Structures are given as C-alpha cells and as structure tokens.
Amino acid sequence: MRISELARQTGVTPRALRYYEEQGLLRPSRSASGYRRYDSQAVITVRHIQLLISAGLNTMAIAEILPCVPDDVTVLAPTCPELLDALAQERIRITGSIERLAAARDILDRLIEAGDRS
DNA sequence: GTTCTTACA
DNA sequence: TGTAAGTA
C-alpha cells in the first residue's frame, strides 16, 4: 500500500510516517516511481510505535527495541530482554521527570500561598 | 491526482 | 508537525 493508505488505516499522518522512516522506525520499499510501498505488516508496526510513543519512549529508544518485536505480534509484549530493559529504563527516566515536576509544583505552591497572604 | 524532497515557520 | 514549492 502507499503512504496515504497506511495513514488512513493507522490514523497517523503521512508526514509522521515519513518522519518515522527518517528515524529508522519503518523501512518501506520503493516503487519504480519512488513512492513508498508498505506491506500490511506495517499497520501493526505503526500501532506498536504509537503504543511505545504513548508510553513516553522517544524514537531513538523505539528504533532500538522495535527489531526485537516479532512481526506477527499484534499485542505488544516484552518478548526479549532488550525490550524489557528498555521499558524499565524508560520507567526510571519518567520517574525522574515526575519528581522534578513535583518539586516545581511545590515551589509554585509556596509562591502562590505567599501571594495569597500579601 | 498522488507522492517525493526540501525548506521554513 | 503543518504547509508550500516544484517534480515525477
């Protein structure tokens, strides 16, 4: 299928699909005219990509763990140590982000309370 | 008409 | 990420 069809089936814009390719997440073949050709498997792969992005992983991390996911897997699950490790690592990363945000919120709370009293 | 690349906001 | 230009 061509890019617009994959976009239709996944809800991902052609722009984003080209970006995924640029980031090494998709490897579409090319027609003689230069058009990208995606197999039906790409639909599943894009769904995996979307799921991992939803989980907060950046494209670099996804590019590293995507090859670890078998093509016939429709429900993404940690099938290899690398994937499990990448997910655990991402969890650690976002935990740090949450802590920094919470600290920022505490500061804002103090500032807001100080404002209320003056 | 659709898609491609490149580039800018 | 959206959009525009100029092609194939």
TrEMBL record:
State what protein this is by name.
MerR family transcriptional regulator
Please give the SMART domains that the UniProt record associates with this protein.
Answer: HTH_MERR
Domain (HTH merR-type) spans 1-68
Provide the alphabetized UniProt keywords.
DNA-binding
* Gene3D superfamilies recorded: 1.10.1660.10
CDD domains in UniProt: HTH_MerR-like_sg3 (cd01282)
| Superkingdom as given in the UniProt entry | Bacteria
Species, as recorded: Actinoplanes oblitus
Q: Does the keyword DNA-binding apply?
A: yes
Task: Say if the entry is tagged with keyword DNA-binding.
Answer: yes
Q: Which InterPro entries does the protein's record reference?
A: DNA-bd_dom_put_sf, MerR-type_HTH_dom, MerR_fam
PANTHER family registered for this protein in UniProt? MERR FAMILY REGULATORY PROTEIN, REDOX-CYCLING DRUG-SENSING TRANSCRIPTIONAL ACTIVATOR SOXR
Q: Which first-to-last residue range defines the signal peptide?
A: none
